[in-house]
Design goal:
Elements (H helix, E strand, L loop, with lengths): L1 H26 L8 H9 L21 H11 L18 H8 L15 H14 L2 H17 L20 E2 L4 H13 L10 H21 L2 E2 L2 E2 L5 E2 L17 E2 H12 L6 H16 L5 E12 L4 E10 L7 E2 L1 E2 L6 E2 L16 H5 L4 E2 L2 H15 L8
Antiparallel strand pairs: 1-4, 2-3, 5-9, 6-7, 8-11, 9-10
Helix pairs in contact: 3-5, 5-6, 5-7, 7-8, 9-10, 9-12, 10-12
Length: 391
């Protein structure tokens, strides 16, 4: 009787635990925020090269529908393991849209641009951890192998792989490409539980790729006037020097993209001398390149139609003694003057000189370096206690 009663209690307890687990599984959600850039491009920027375009009021899955979203990710994954950019992974696709997407799997126009591929890989890893559905594991591993294959021998990554003509061959920090890959590899190297399924052979390859990527970052840091500064948005894949990308993206010291590089380096435990020097140089540069008494404001303006979208606003720079420090996205090499440009690649030195289409359609100013400066005191006390570069 005693054993029977206890057995019943154990079964009841097990059933309760199982019910809770099932409930949690059904109500769990995985953030799709990492796909925001591509999603916004799909809905709001015209692109004749899109495989599919959104239908009016395209329905979307809820965040809790992570298997449906993961299925979308598998639809878009190409045969080479990578992904095309600028689609909404939450979109509830019509059968015709699914058919059009699947028919393009053989195309090798795959990229890390606009937070593509590495975000898809991580989403699949999380869904596999929750479901143990082998399809998601296989898709994740194919994505990781694609990423490893895309790495240059010097440790950098191009914007597109397989390699294409033009600036997409450059090693690219822009739109989070390089550091997105590095943060993905870091999760695997640091034994993130979402990647527990990765075999020892693949893990070894990932660790080697991560170290090469870190070494390449340190080699690309711009040394200007004899001092370490920050990084460019893109670096030549052979010389590692700052390079042109799009016609309005000049070789320069780029504060916006450099912040994520510095934050990544600051998170490394027991940094070696090269990493410490890299952080110190970049932090000093952020401090020295501050712009004061300046505020950027957007205001309503007469609507105009550009090649890319309708523009209903304009942007201007105003003097404001109460404004917090700000930085321009670009600083000219050697002179360190705030730098702007346009679709004709001319060097400009004020936002007012930039055409309205580019003035309103690009982030020419940034406050991102403040994140690194705020984090610096704690980092400096721990890893460079005798050398505060902000004093």
């Amino acid at each position: 009787m005693f054993n029977s009663v206890n057995s019943s209690k154990l079964l009841a307890s097990a059933f309760c635990i199982f019910s809770v687990l099932c409930l949690n599984a059904q109500t769990s959600e995985i953030s799709t925020k990492p796909f925001t850039d591509g999603t916004n491009h799909w809905y709001f920027i015209k692109d004749k090269t899109n495989i599919i375009n959104p239908i009016p009021n395209q329905p979307k899955y809820a965040e809790t529908d992570y298997t449906k979203i993961a299925d979308n990710i598998l639809y878009f994954q190409r045969d080479n393991g990578g992904w095309p950019k600028n689609y909404d992974m939450k979109a509830i696709l019509t059968p015709q849209q699914v058919d059009s997407v699947v028919k393009t799997k053989y195309i090798e126009h795959t990229t890390f641009d606009n937070e593509t591929t590495y975000t898809h890989i991580h989403y699949l890893a999380q869904v596999y951890t929750l479901t143990k559905d082998e399809r998601y594991k296989d898709g994740c591993l194919r994505g990781i192998n694609f990423t490893l294959k895309a790495q240059y021998p010097n440790g950098g990554w191009p914007q597109y792989y397989p390699l294409e003509k033009g600036y997409s061959r450059h090693i690219t920090f822009n739109d989070g490409a390089y550091m997105g890959i590095m943060n993905l590899l870091k999760k695997i190297v640091n034994n993130d539980p979402d990647y527990a399924f990765i075999d020892a052979k693949t893990r070894k390859k990932v660790t080697a790729a991560y170290q090469k990527g870190l070494d390449c970052i340190l080699k690309m840091q711009i040394k200007d006037n004899g001092k370490l500064t920050a990084w460019c948005q893109q670096h030549d894949e052979i010389t590692l020097e700052p390079a042109w990308a799009r016609k309005f993206e000049p070789p320069s010291i780029c504060n916006a993209e450099s912040v994520d590089v510095v934050l990544f380096l600051m998170d490394i435990d027991n940094p070696n001398e090269k990493i410490i020097n890299a952080v110190q140089g970049a932090i000093k540069w952020f401090q020295n390149s501050k712009i004061y008494n300046t505020r950027v404001e957007s205001f309503a303006a007469e609507e105009m139609e550009s090649k890319y979208k309708k523009i209903k606003n304009d942007v201007r720079v105003v003097n404001d003694p109460t404004a917090p420090p700000i930085w321009t996205r670009y600083y000219e090499l050697k002179t360190h003057r705030p730098l702007f440009s346009d679709r004709d690649s001319e060097f400009l030195y004020s936002l007012a000189e930039v055409s309205r289409e580019r003035r309103t359609g690009y982030a020419w100013y940034t406050d991102k370096p403040e994140k690194a400066l705020k984090k610096y005191p704690e980092w400096q006390k721990k890893w460079a206690p005798d050398d505060n570069v902000l004093k």
